[in-house]
Write a structure and sequence with these properties.
This protein has about 240 residues and is an alpha/beta fold. It is built from 7 helices and 14 strands. A 7-stranded mixed beta sheet has the order 6-5-4-3-2-1-14. It has a 7-stranded mixed beta sheet with strand order 7-8-9-10-11-12-13.
């Protein structure tokens, strides 16, 4: 698997960048995980909109889905240009019915429901889900292919269940919206220390901090996480590529 960070900012994108969006590729299959503000613009440096094979959404906050409507229009325009290759499946939960209903668009995009106890086969990927602790229904996901695994926490405060769910993941893509010593749980997010604690307890092979804050010195997040986790810690950055 190859992971490419399209956007890594929490809440809204920094100028010239994007909020949450990650391209996961294996065996020629292109899966977009979350589609926040600015994602479609930066995605096109790596793959065209019509090159996507599927989209996987964690929840309906705008920093994770703002560009879904933009993607729909991209598919529509490419359809009129004769370049659209069919209906794009989008896998998402239905606990926000109104949000779910915004996903299906003409014959160009169709919503498919997942639930916490489901296991999905999406192209070469096997995906399982865990409900997170966030102000709205949100799901983290473990994605596996070719004997490798990625655990994407999506948005959440720390949950002990994450340890067993993410055990031995090759990459832990962990939200980190607050610095160590801050109270992130009430906001439904994690600190750098939460991320380091989760990586250490779940025996992650590599920790990537994402959903980053718009304040402070971001390198401090790595320093703080590294006090608890002794493996490699990286800050997610636009266009970062990681082989899994």
């Amino acid at each position: 698997m190859k992971l490419t960070v399209i956007g890594q900012w929490g809440g809204y994108p920094k100028a010239g960048e994007a909020s949450s969006g990650y391209l996961l590729q294996a065996n020629g299959y292109n899966l977009l995980i979350d589609c926040g503000s600015g994602v479609l613009s930066h995605l096109q440096h790596h793959v065209e909109a019509t090159g996507l094979d599927a989209v996987l959404l964690s929840h309906y906050h705008p920093d994770h889905v703002a560009d879904i409507g933009v993607l729909q229009h991209a598919l529509l325009i490419q359809y009129f240009l004769g370049k659209n290759k069919g209906t794009l499946p989008v896998y998402t939960h239905r606990e926000d019915q109104r949000g779910f209903e915004t996903i299906t668009y003409k014959d160009l995009m169709k919503a498919h429901e997942y639930k916490e106890d489901t296991s999905l086969s999406i192209g070469p990927f096997n995906v399982t889900f865990v409900k997170t602790k966030h102000p709205v229904p949100c799901y983290g996901m473990r994605i596996e292919a070719d004997g490798k695994s990625l655990f994407y926490t999506a948005d959440s405060a720390f949950k002990e269940e994450f340890v067993s769910f993410g055990m031995d993941a090759d990459v832990l893509l962990c939200e980190c919206n607050f610095y160590g010593g801050m109270d992130a749980s009430n906001a439904g997010h994690m600190t750098s220390l939460d991320a380091g604690h989760l990586a250490q307890k779940s025996n992650a092979r590599k920790l990537i901090l994402t959903h980053l804050p718009h304040f402070g010195e971001l390198d401090q997040l790595v320093t703080e996480a590294s006090t608890l986790y002794k493996g490699e810690v990286l800050l997610a950055k636009k266009d970062m590529k990681v082989d899994i």
